[in-house]
Amino acid sequence: MTVRAQVSFAAPSGSPVGRERIRLLEAVAREGSISAAARAMGITYKAAWDAIDAMNNLFGSPLVAGQTGGRRGGGAALTPEGLRLVETFHRLEGELARAFHALEPELTGTGLSAANLMWGFFMRTSARNALRGSVAAVTDGAVNAEVALRVSDRTTLTAVITRDSVRDLGLFPGREATALIKAPFVILAPAGEARRTSVRNRVEGTVCRREDGAVNAEITLDIGGGKTLTAIITRHSADDLGLTAGQPACALIDAAHIILAVD
């Protein structure tokens, strides 16, 4: 038996708001319209509107706002209140999962387990780089989607992930997420020598630290906004490129090598 803890918002005068309705809000933010969100969720346009109206009534303020103009002739987006609701819901899920995890020893011998619920919330990763930011844009494709994550005022990373992953993670413009990048996947080049390349991500910075090993060197770039990016390359390459503290450099990262994670 698998036990799953669930969060829902409720009031005496309205129906509860749980994961499915939060996913509807995420779909509106991702698809840019209520009709497209309804199709993505497999429900009717009326059912989507009814659910949004119910949520607006429950929280006392509009969670979705209409937009005019644009290449699709208008649509819809989450209001600041809607965005905060989605983020708060996921934070509450995380706290509930942590509380459930603390109670797990008391479930011993009952045949119940919180393991399947816990792994996502207590994930540890070997990825050297974990850059937190805000989703700037999601560009949908036939199979994959391109997600732009703004990690600082001057740096936006692009990741290519499946469309299913976009939906499962609830990614939409304004949603916070973390980019995970293994250090060996970061290619370094001297500043100004990597302007013509097929690699999607080109991040300029300044070498702030270099640590040499027997074979490899760990190079850390200051990429602005209080963020750093670490690469592992051979010592021979580091010497050839003249990568020393204070020198400008450019990091190249394939979009397919970036993993996205959410709270």
**Helix/strand/pairing class, anyone?**
alpha+beta
Number of strands: 14
Average pLDDT, rounded to a whole number, is 82
Radius of gyration: 22 Å
What letter string, H or E per element, gives the SSE order? EEHHHEEHHEEEHEEEEEHEE
* Overall geometry: elongated
Compute the separation of the termini in Å: 25 Å
CATH class call of the domain at 9-106: Mainly Alpha
Helix percentage: 25-40%
Instruction: Please outline the major beta sheet.
Output: 5 strands, antiparallel
The low-confidence runs, each spanning 5 or more residues with pLDDT under 50, are 68-73, 113-123
Strand arrangement across the biggest beta sheet: 7-6-5-8-14
Roughly what fraction of the amino acids lie in strands? Answer: 25-35%
What is the CATH superfamily label of the domain at 9-106? Answer: Winged helix-like DNA-binding domain superfamily/Winged helix DNA-binding domain
Instruction: Work out the helix count.
Output: 7
Architecture of the domain at 9-106, CATH level 2? Orthogonal Bundle
Task: Summarize the model shown.
This protein has 263 residues and is α+β, with helices and mostly antiparallel strands. Helices cover 30% and strands 34% of the residues. It is elongated.
